[in-house]
Amino acid sequence: MTNSLRPHGSQRTPLPQEAVPAPPTPRDEEAGQQTTAPPAPSAPTGQKPKQRDAFFDNAKYLAIVLVAMGHAWEPLTDTSRTAEALYMTVYTFHMPAFIMISGYFSRSFDMRPDRLRRLITGVAVPYLVFEIAYTLFKRWADDDPTYDFSLLDPWYLTWFLIALFVWRLTTPIWKLVRWPIPLSLAIATLASVSPDIGDDLDLQRVLQFLPFFVIGLSMKPEHFQLMRRRSVRMASVPVFACALLFAYWAAPRMNSAWFYHRDSVQELAAPPWTGPVMTLALFGCSVVLVSCFLAWVPRRHMWFTALGAGTLYGYLLHGFLAKGSRFWGWYDNEWLHKPLGEIAVTIAAGTVITALCTPPVQRAFRFVMEPKMAWAFRKDPAEQARGRTTTGA
Fold first, then answer.
1. How many of the other CB atoms lie within 10 Å of CB of 145?
2. Which uninterrupted H or E stretch holds 326?
């Protein structure tokens, strides 16, 4: 976020089996969720279509709730060491988890015309719309009518859209190289010591978060099965406890801007050698905590499972409230900085983000988030041929 705040008894559903996935819908690709495929024309009568996997929808919903809570905790960190510790712990893994899942469901992406169209309509168009909307909102809510429009400098939450656009375009490259994860880590390390990269397209974030997307591309269903082992779940409890204790100790000693991955070490006024050290250390901590987080994500259908389909809606829309709360001085109330106030802020953040992920909100904003835009694209001859073949069959 370029102008970021300090800096977003039931039967279990099995994880997906290794198979060639069906072309994802825009919402599925952009939010990193599992796709469903209709039965083939030759499928036996009565065969049911593939169902969404509850595990990934649950994971995305829980991750986006933590994103919203992290944004709500940020103004409290100056006066509460506990809030700072929770903030640092959550920022270690919530976006890496979201990015890894996005990478996992980008494995089938190639330069096929239909997938490129979905990338444009499901990522590029929402980026343009929300970048303009956020700028207008800042001009009005922050009483800053001269604030400039800049489509090259993502504002607040829109960095994720431009990053996803770049990452997905590079997917064929990561599927081609022999050692994609070490290579992406090397790129992230070099970015951390390269202040000249600048703010255009928030490339620092694009490059420093890149390894998590590449890990997602490299993962297979069995890797998620490993995380579901009882031993991993049990080990995750003391690991999270240690992470919270360490964060509580580090809160007054460490600059939380390290967790945003938006600055070079020079911009953080740190020695150059800390770039590789912190990049690798935070990467290791993030991978461990993401594994612990996913180990406890329910695999069965929960009351919030359906909301996993709307996480990108909640992510982008809650930014107006998150920023507005600062512009309008909501946190100036002293009681919010007391323990009960902090609990109230946490509950409010979870409630708001949940409401913004609901189907009615999705239907209301689908014209922006998933526009069809058939008028903007030429018809692909290959697709027309496939359509004629299907019709003939």
1. 8
2. helix 311-327
Contact indicator for 33, 56 with CB cutoff of 8 Å = yes
Residue numbers in the chain where pLDDT is lower than 70? 1-51, 380-393
What is the pTM (predicted TM-score) of this model?
A: 0.83
Model confidence pLDDT, tens digit, residues 1-26: 444 444 434 444 444 443 333 333 34
CB 141 within 8 A of CB 323: yes
Name the nearest CA neighbour of 227 among 287, 268, 153. 287
226 vs 103, 190, 219, 232, CA distance in Å? 18, 32, 11, 8
pLDDT attached to residue 40:
37
- pLDDT of the residue at 195: 87
Residue 206 Cα distances to 132, 161, 233, 235, 292, angstroms: 20, 10, 31, 31, 24
Cα end-to-end span (Å), the chain: 50
- 350 with 68: CB under 8 angstroms? yes
Contact 67, 94 (CB under 8 A): yes
Contacts of 385 (CB under 8 A, 6+ apart): none
